[in-house]
Amino acid sequence: MKNSLSFISLFLFSISFSSVYSQVSFDIQGGISNTNILSDKNQNANFRTDLNTYAGTSLRFSAEDQINFQLDFLYEKKGANYVDDQYQSIFGLQYLSLSPIVNIELSKSLDIFIGPYFSYRLRENHEVNGVEIVLERIDYLTHSDDMGLRSGFKFKFDQFFFQMCYSFGLKDIRSFNFDSPFEGPVFPEGLYNKSLSLGLGFTFT
């Protein structure tokens, strides 16, 4: 509940912030993400990358000629595959993310951007040894939402754009109170989302 209220408060603050600027553009975007889960305690943890998708919108507010403030609202799928001698597991995490970022225009066709993201976990699903388990918010892998940093670049072609973005989590998504009625692997501590995304978008001005 606390994480949900924090996410809603940040969303409302972002909406109220938008009224300060008169020059506002609206984007729609979507693409694919190569996602994984990294462990800072065990570099040999047997996680493998998975291919996922994302989609959403963004609002860009002109603050200066070359520096803009941007808000991304994204639906993202993240997760990874886990393989060891006993288990073959596919873990999927679905998030609703809000990302306030600074967008710097290097040229008319190239932007770079960086900023934090705050993600509210909508759903977790996984498959263990070929058996699919789907529940709303089970604590098999994680009991928390996520937050981290995003950075990337954007190529603009008139109103269309192509972008590449790398994001990495700063919050451990492993359930500290590991208690699941389902059998499965016991994970090392210190698990963090990461993803490399490629996407296309269109800007409404």
- How far is it from the N-terminal to the C-terminal residue, by CA? 37 Å
CATH architecture: Beta Barrel
State mean pLDDT (0 to 100 scale): 79
- The number of distinct helices, counting runs of at least 4 residues, comes to 1
Beta-strand proportion: over 45%
Large-scale geometry: elongated
Helix fraction, binned, reads under 10%
CATH topology: Porin
Radius of gyration equals 18 Å
The helix/strand class is mainly beta
Number of domains: 1
User: SSE string, helix = H, strand = E?
Assistant: HEEEEEEEEEE
Number of strands: 10
Largest sheet: 8 strands, antiparallel, barrel
Give the strand line-up of the largest sheet: 1-3-4-5-6-8-9-10
Structure commentary:
This protein is 8% helix and 61% strand. By secondary structure, it is mainly beta. The chain has a single domain (2-204), classed as Porin (Beta Barrel), CATH 2.40.160. Strand 8 and strand 9 (160-169) form a beta hairpin. The longest helix is centred in the N-terminal third of the chain and has 17 residues, at 2-18. It starts with a helix and ends with a strand.
Characteristic key phrases:
205 residues, mainly beta, Porin, 8-stranded antiparallel β-barrel, 8% helix
Tell me briefly what this model is.
By secondary structure, this protein is mainly β.
Mind sketching the topology for me?
Elements: H1 2-18, E1 24-39, E2 47-48, E3 50-62, E4 67-83, E5 88-105, E6 110-128, E7 131-135, E8 146-157, E9 160-169, E10 191-204
